[in-house]
Specification:
Length: about 375
């Protein structure tokens, strides 16, 4: 096959490209320029897409003996990922930009261009597995990225390769060193790639501006503090609330509700955060076929953690495919805008992704199915 290898400049994508070469594919490496003004250097493990990263990717391609190109996707990335990220926070939601990037950039814009140029598949350094066309968790659960890939359609998965999903991260680094790849010890990037400072609130404040509102107590309605915009908060947040005095009972306060229309941020107890039901819209079914009846699964509601057994029911909301999710035990910190990803446990091959949707609303009331 002709394979386009997306090379970020990190160790994972370099080894993924190397394994594609080993598999006998005709491989071409490509680095995506996602910033209109990339920095010369990364700041430790913060950020990505710097000129340093592009150079690291090029050196890895040279070691592997494959052609290498840099493609400019900065405008598309701004429109589809950064702008959507800002708009979501302004609306009181908590988006996952990695998921959006996979959905709209890597496996849509990039993959479409690759297919148009005659490539058969796109290889990336994501930690996930494809088994008989089914998306499953990576062997290394600590590095698993199936959550941010669950939005991919059956067609997109059919032209994807995840060559490193069957190997723990430590072994990937060791393999990179054996291959003579200089990125073997390069730190993993973390946080949000287009906010290298790590200060999301400051980034959003510069984009959105000041939109003052109140922080109020969930039980009494008392105004506890003022704030400069709902974009500085997310459901389940405990720190940075701007409240001078502790709660009367001495227990921590958490953000339990965000109303962007009034600018009101409500805080309450950990018990106030409990969610028993989720409605997820923009549903994607990994098999390409919508289940015709409710089924048992495990839901994950954020990139790291937030797992619970559920009964999932396909439905329609405002004419679009959606999922009603009844939890068998409550979860906390469930934020609108995040993905609700459904898995079927499989001890042999790793948990299988069956579908996902974006969290549109939640319920604090147990249903009959949730408490059985």
């Amino acid at each position: 096959m002709r394979v386009l290898a997306a090379m970020s400049g990190g160790v994972d994508s370099a080894v993924a490209a190397a394994r594609a070469v080993d598999a006998g594919h005709e491989v071409v490496g490509v680095h995506l320029a996602l910033s209109t003004a990339p920095g010369a250097l990364r700041t430790g493990s913060r950020g990505c897409c710097s000129r340093e990263d592009a150079s690291d990717a090029r050196r890895a391609a040279d070691v592997l003996g494959i052609p290498f190109y840099v493609w400019d996707f900065a405008d598309r990335f701004k429109d589809d990922v950064i702008d959507e990220f800002v708009e979501a926070y302004a609306a009181g939601r908590t988006p996952n930009p990695c998921l959006t990037c996979n959905e709209k950039i890597k496996f849509a814009a990039l993959a479409d261009k690759a297919i148009a140029l005659g490539f058969d598949a796109l290889a990336t350094g994501h930690y996930a597995q494809l088994v008989d066309g089914e998306l499953r968790r990576a062997v290394d659960h600590d590095k698993d990225q199936s959550y941010v890939l669950a939005v991919l359609t059956r067609e997109q998965l059919s032209r994807a390769l995840f060559p490193i999903g069957d190997t723990p991260k430590a072994e990937i680094r060791a393999e990179a060193a054996r291959r003579g790849l200089a990125v073997a010890d390069k730190p993993d990037s973390h946080d949000i790639c287009f906010i290298p400072s790590g200060d999301t609130r400051a980034f959003l404040g510069a984009k959105i501006g000041i939109r003052p509102g109140a922080v109020v107590d969930a039980s009494s309605g008392e105004r506890l503090a003022d704030h400069e915009g709902v974009h500085g908060f997310t459901i389940g947040q405990r720190k940075g609330l701007g409240i001078d005095a502790p709660a009367a009972d001495g227990k921590p306060r958490y953000v339990t509700e965000i109303d962007p229309a009034s600018g009101t941020v409500t805080v309450g107890t950990a018990e106030d955060l409990q969610v028993w039901g989720i409605t997820a819209t923009r549903a994607v079914w990994t098999s390409g076929i919508t289940p015709d009846e409710p089924f048992e699964a495990v839901v994950q509601v954020r990139a790291h953690g937030g797992l619970a057994p559920v009964t999932a029911t396909p439905t329609i909301v405002a004419g679009e495919p959606a999922i009603d999710i009844a939890l068998h035990e409550p979860l906390t910190g469930v934020a609108r805008g995040q993905a609700a990803v459904l898995y079927l446990p499989d001890a042999e091959h790793g948990d299988q992704v069956v579908g996902c949707g974006r969290i549109a609303s939640t319920s604090s009331q147990p249903t009959a199915v949730a408490t059985r």
